[in-house]
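Per reviewer request, we include the raw input and output of the structure prediction for the construct analysed in the revised manuscript.
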Amino acid sequence: MRHYWLAALALGGLLWRPAHAEPAPALPNPWANAPGAKEFPKADAIILKDDIQAIIYPDGTNDLIEYDAIKVLNKEGIERFGRTVRFYDSKMQTSKVELARVWMPDGKMIDVPPARITDTVTDSYASHPLYKRMHLIGIDYPNPVEGSVLEFRLVHHRKVPWPGRKFWEVSYTQDFEPILDTTFTFKSPEQTQYNLEAPGSPELKPASLTRADGILTMKWSMKDRPAIVKQPAMPSLREVASQIQISNFSGWD
């Protein structure tokens, strides 16, 4: 999310264009053959792809990159996923939108306009001086309909390391909606000491682990993760969803 919507327009380019200029060809819809309500009649949405990357740097700063493509199937799915919201501490972090777009059922792709991507101080904290650094970044997708695919990529950079260069990264491998494909990639300096835990996940061991050029890389990959069935008085998704945790803290408490 390198502020792709910021482009300089030369005045001459606005006033003159070659007569033979043609619009750029439309991107092929990568989700044209994605399953829908027929295959998942009980779902409000389908998480087609969920990809999380955590990158730890030698100085203790880190990047968390999240990419999702979500097909909404009905009104409830649109209400839940029609706006992507993340919170961050502006003193410690930055958050940027690198990609935000909607694939309509007819295959048309619509980039989310800049005006629909916001970064604001959260209302609930605005009156408290100590918490004015808490920001909300939001993506408001334009006019999604049943069968639309909402796609985004967010980059969260921790610019101030935790004391002792500590880190704790989590990837959730389950949701209240089915997940067809989920991946989690972790990169750090090769000699990084770490602890792993995977509550509820079928695999604690990564699908691949490599050490090359001073970099440790671990990757988990899972497909066809079932939806969590909601129950009365159920705890939050974060408490019940299967997940993979990696940390260099001495314990999990």
